[in-house]
Design a protein that fits this description.
Shape: globular
CATH architecture of the largest domain: Orthogonal Bundle
Mean pLDDT: 84
Largest sheet: none
CATH topology of the largest domain: Farnesyl Diphosphate Synthase
Strand content: under 5%
Number of domains: 2
Low-confidence stretches: 1-60
CATH superfamily of the largest domain: Farnesyl Diphosphate Synthase
CATH class of the largest domain: Mainly Alpha
Distance between the termini: 8 Å
Helix content: 55-70%
Number of helices: 24
Number of strands: 0
Structural class: mainly alpha
Order of helices and strands: HHHHHHHHHHHHHHHHHHHHHHHH
Length: 601
């Protein structure tokens, strides 16, 4: 594919997006907070886990994988009939989009960067790229989600055929990547494009084409409510080679793209199965499955880890994420329903005097099981994180657990004394007791960049944590207020009603909370996409991954509390192989895929 630079173009640097400050989270109900204690840091991942090592014989040969990558890049270098600039940009962006959709974009990082740099130069010139609504919307979405500073105002001057399904779909997807409440143009575009797409679905019920099935999926499941690996599997299984997912490419190139997607997913899945078996054994060895009050949510936490931190080399990050997720659920259930006040005080005291274990006295067997699981897990993972970081970070992991239990005890005191906190008091405490700290914060040490102590104390850490936790806490509250009220717990929904003196109903309170939920999500996405400041991009993406996980479980109900609600998703990512026609699989040439595929701007 041959594309030349536009006349007079030059290399341009990417302006850094600015994070706005001020404003109320709850539109006057809940003020913005940005002064919480600093939050943690990051590191490199240990690549080899002897206890969860995959079976090399069952995985595709890495030599074959490399060969297919080379072939893929070469194929995409092949010149086409001289296309216009707009056609070239559309083709290149379509390729980037497909690579991301089937989970193989990391294999083409340098080529994708070249394409996006080229597209960004065109975006700034507001030239031919603006003449086609589909191309313009796709460019805006992909550039923004890859950290380029693009204004939504660029979408305000485009025109489109209101019956053009592909253009409407791209405009709708672009409207979802807002990073500020002030981007009203995105809300407007999302409203009318969504309406027109739904009208098309109603009038085409008899013939559900591939495109209309995609429309239905996008309308039902915004991108921030879906987990990456689930989407990759869905897109691979629906990848239509015969009809050319990228129309301008050859049948063979599309087939090679599918081959790489299949190989990449299958290789990862075999690793996930090994890791999950190890984690299941850990739960039994730790006796967590013997606690009658505890929900067993290991599968859900491993699903969220494997679906968002899916590259094979992030094994330690996935293991930590799943272990601490299972542990925080047990602790949360212990404080809510399983433990007496004396047991909770004993557990909190044990964690506070972490370094004085010779003085340990357990109030009950339940306390012993819970504390020993926390103690052994934190020390093991802290040792690995310290080795990766080149400094002792175990103490920081301990502090995260100490803060969690202190704040949980505050809620116990409120409940036992009948104290009704203000909404501000509740949120300030609940961003910690939502218990995302022990899950995401230690995992930062394993995702790549090394983190200095000064990074841990930077306000950006606190703000990322606050936005992530507030968004998750409010999503949870909106869906669980009835159950929690029966258990004697107050949350933001019931507090809005109580403090309104009867002027706000439960449905109104739930609607009122949607605004701060949206605001937190957009503000978090803006911070995540902002060019690296204190927090490196790979680390910031973990906060976004947790936010998507919260949406995944609480977007349309309380799926987390239901043992079977997301069981199909667990099986899809961890256990069930890809479902593709056997005749298609037999035609996939794994030995030479990258020889033919080559991306070039």
């Amino acid at each position: 594919m041959k594309v030349v630079n536009p006349p007079g173009s030059s290399s341009l640097t990417r302006p850094t997006a600015r994070c706005s400050s001020g404003g109320g989270l709850l539109c006057g109900v809940l003020p913005m907070r940005s002064t919480r204690d600093p939050r943690p840091a990051v590191a490199r991942v240990a690549k080899n886990r002897p206890e969860v090592g995959g079976n090399a014989a069952s995985m595709p040969n890495p030599v074959e994988k490399k060969a297919r990558e080379t072939r893929t890049k070469k194929q995409l270098h092949k010149p086409q009939d001289e296309p216009t600039y707009q056609e070239s940009i559309h083709l290149q962006l379509s390729m980037v989009d497909v690579l991301q959709k089937i989970g193989i974009s990391r294999h083409f990082a340098s080529e994708i960067k070249s394409i996006l740099d080229f597209t960004y130069r065109y975006w700034l010139q507001r030239d031919e790229i603006m003449l086609d609504a589909e191309t313009c919307a796709m460019a805006f979405r992909i550039l923004r989600m890859n950290g380029y500073s693009v204004s939504a105002d660029g979408l305000s001057h485009i025109s489109t055929d209101l019956s053009d399904t592909r253009s409407l779909l791209e405009l709708y997807k672009a409207s979802q990547v807002g990073t500020s409440d002030d981007e009203l143009i995105l809300d407007i575009i999302g409203s009318w494009s969504g309406y027109l797409l739904r009208q098309q679905l109603k009038s085409n019920d008899a013939q559900r084409t591939l495109l209309l099935r995609e429309v239905e999926h996008v309308l039902d499941s915004p991108f921030y409510t879906m987990l990456d690996r689930l989407e990759h599997k869905r897109n691979i299984e629906q990848f239509d080679v015969i009809e050319h997912p990228i129309q301008q490419l050859t049948w063979q190139t599309n087939q090679d793209l599918l081959a790489l997607g299949v190989m990449d997913f299958s290789t990862s899945q075999s690793i996930y199965q090994e890791e999950y078996q190890y984690l299941d054994s850990w739960v039994k060895e730790s006796k967590l499955n013997r606690l009658p009050f505890a929900r067993q949510k290991l599968a859900y936490f491993y699903l969220s880890a494997a679906s968002t931190m899916f590259p094979p080399e992030l094994s330690d990050a996935r293991i930590l994420w799943a272990k601490n997720g299972a542990l925080t659920t047990v602790v949360d259930d212990f404080f809510d329903v399983g433990g007496s006040k004396e047991e909770l005080q004993n557990l909190t005291a044990l964690v506070e005097m972490w370094q004085k274990q010779e003085e340990t006295e357990y109030y009950s067997e339940q306390v012993k099981i819970v504390f020993c699981a926390i103690y052994s897990s934190v020390n093991e993972l802290g040792s690995k994180a310290s080795a990766v970081q080149g400094r002792d970070v175990t103490g920081h992991l301990v502090e995260i657990w100490q803060e969690l239990l202190r704040n949980m005890m505050t809620e116990v005191e409120w409940r036992t004394t009948g104290y009704v906190p203000t909404l501000d008091e509740y949120i300030d405490n609940a961003v910690v007791t939502f218990a995302l700290g022990p899950i995401v914060l230690p995992a930062l040490y394993f995702v790549g960049p090394k983190i200095t102590e000064s990074m841990v104390t930077d306000p950006e850490y606190s703000e990322l944590f606050r936005l992530m936790s507030t968004c998750g806490r409010l999503l949870n509250d909106v869906q669980t207020y009835e159950r929690e009220y029966k258990e004697g717990k107050l949350n933001s929904v019931s507090l809005l009603v109580l403090h309104s003196d009867g002027s706000v109903t439960i449905p109104e309170a739930r609607r009122k909370l949607q605004k701060p939920i949206d605001t937190c999500r957009r503000d978090l996405l803006r911070l995540v996409l902002k060019e690296d400041d204190a927090v490196p991009r790979p680390c910031k993406e973990l906060f976004w991954n947790i936010c998507k996980t919260c949406y995944f479980f609480y977007y349309q109900g309380d799926a987390f509390s239901c043992q079977e609600e997301k069981a199909g998703a667990v099986d899809a990512v961890i256990h069930d192989p890809l479902q593709l026609p056997m005749n298609l699989l037999s035609d996939l040439d794994y030995s030479t895929w990258r020889e033919r595929i080559k991306i070039k701007h």
